[in-house]
Amino acid sequence: MIRLSTDQISVGYGENLILNRLNVDIPDKRITTIIGPNGCGKSTLLKAVTRIIPYQSGAAILDGEEIAKMNTKLLAKKLAILPQTPEGPGGLTVGELVSYGRYPHQRGFGRLTKQDMDVIDWALEVTGTQDYKYRPVDALSGGQRQRVWIAMSLAQETEMIFLDEPTTYLDMAHQLEILELLERLNIEQERTIVMVLHDLNQAARFADYIIAMKDGNVVQAGDPESVISHEVLKKVFHIDAEIGRDPRTAKPICITYNLLRGEQEERPLAEQLHPDEETTLPVYRAAVHS
């Protein structure tokens, strides 16, 4: 089922067009990841469909209504966005920050009701941040802060959550922790999750649907099998990738890759090496960082 889509949407900064008549469908109650090189329009797409930035033409449609024309509080009850580097007022405790997620549901002078407090406590519990409730946000580690921001998004009680590079600046363990949390929210609560990721293997492992972008356009969209492939990665990242199978998830995995350079793009590897060069090439097992 598709509740959110774009129709020929174009977005630019000044005369620089970032998205050019882009058509995108976001599957409902699924995890969608957006991949692509820097500057391809991934973050711009997220900001456009969540109304953080305006679009020049076309439309973003949610439940049959153009997002640009929706009531702000109504929209905030349907979707939440966690930007790449979220910032809040200094000096807040964790509980105070998470309480900001209740804004769309408040009336009058905005005092928190018992229902609001129950939702806040639930969001803290689900994200494993209950013990931090009275601690200053500034005193937390990067992974802890990221979970607190996700708790604020959950307190908003939206059906859709958008996240722009939620694992940036986190170590491997904390990255996995955040992604497993989002996966659990999708499975147990049927939240629609849309996120920008740089790590191809994380995208393949956790996504039901992947959108691969380049130069403001969609190169390929579909399940991980159809996007994490040699040909698609060649078009999107200009790399020669070896694709294998994750032994734990059976999802496609980028095992290693070389950067394609000029004429080497179409030449066999053996012909690319000079006779006097080493024939053992280094293997890079980290996923592509665009």
From TrEMBL:
GO biological process, alphabetically ordered: iron ion transport
PANTHER family, alphabetized: IRON(3+)-HYDROXAMATE IMPORT ATP-BINDING PROTEIN FHUC (PTHR42771)
UniProt subcellular location: Cell membrane
GO molecular function: ATP binding; ATP hydrolysis activity
PROSITE patterns: ABC_TRANSPORTER_1, ABC_TRANSPORTER_2
Primary subcellular site in the record, as a coarse category: membrane
Alphabetical UniProt keywords: ATP-binding, Cell membrane, Ion transport, Iron, Iron transport, Membrane, Nucleotide-binding, Transport
Record membrane topology: Peripheral membrane protein
Every ABC transporter domain range: 4-240
Name of the protein in question: Iron-enterobactin transporter ATP-binding protein
Translocase is among the record's keywords: no
GO cellular component: plasma membrane
UniProt cross-references to Pfam families, sorted A to Z: ABC_tran
InterPro entries the record matches: AAA+_ATPase, ABC_transporter-like_ATP-bd, ABC_transporter-like_CS, P-loop_NTPase, Siderophore_ABC-ATPase
Domain of life according to the entry: Bacteria
